[in-house]
Specification:
2 helices; 5% helix; 34% strand; globular
Amino acid sequence: MRRLAKLVATVNPSGSRGLPVCAAPVTLALLTLVGALPAAAWPVLSGPYFGQKPPGLRAEMFAPGIVSSEHHDDGPPAFSPDGRECFWRVNGYHDGTSRTGKIFWSREQNGRWTEPRLAPFSSTYVEWGLCMQPDGRRLYFWSRRPRPGDRSGSDGGPWFVDRTASGWSEPRPLSLPVDPRRLGFIFSPGAGGALYCVLEDPGKAAAGTAIFRMRRTGDGFASPEPMGVIPVGADQAGAPSFSPDGNTAVFTTDAKGGLELAASFRKTDGTWTAPRPLGDDINAPPQTKFAGFSPDGRYLFVVSNRVSPSANPPKLWKSDVFRGPQREPLCDVYWVDAKALEALRPAQH
């Protein structure tokens, strides 16, 4: 994992550890022009997933100007089970000054999606790595806000909010049976409330495995158990995401110095197939990473800085958090029909 971690981890302008910045070959002059254009009026959107036309078997930009924008979208969006509430993390600039790690939120209300705004549980601290349980009852995220007994909060750690009758609970720090710094800052929830992760320095006992599971036990979690199902070295995989039925795993891999996505499939005997790259219809250089399934498993979201004339579209929503020209092009979110993964599944397994 260490080799991958060097590409996944970086240092943001404030000196704290964050997630990678993606660069694409767009000129600074063009970016300055795009950033100077006034934001268009917030459109009328209705239906699941912002009313976007469902993708085919080739990755397409998701929600241009809404989730994908001139700002840095460094993780898959987290949707409620009905696809009518969405959280996503944004990096960007405020009058030339870099601002990182803000979680935005929108939902369909009275038949229309609301203009994005800071999530109700957002703070003034850097936040990232959000993901929602498939049942929509809990949302996890990482934050540098101080935890109880921690004055600085500089290392960051996992937090969560639970869905309530009136919205979302107050954020609470998540207690895990492992030091959060070993999790690489990224995990994903699965069925039954389990969490999937990749551990740094997992030890000799985990040789040949990359992905671990922490089962939900009441209000807590059991110790990480190597799944023994992803036959890759621990330095080759990260940011695992599992389909809601638990039969498909997609994760970020280090391929020839860049990042791309690979998949592994559960066999009928409970073991897993050797990982295979997702192919050119999903992966694209320079980097494609950080996958996440829709709650119903029909779609796969990915983050990429692929070369495209439509990359980094101007956002359609206004915010005092991010405004003004951008200094560099960054990542967008793409989605694809999950049926595209079936072409990678071995005929007999």
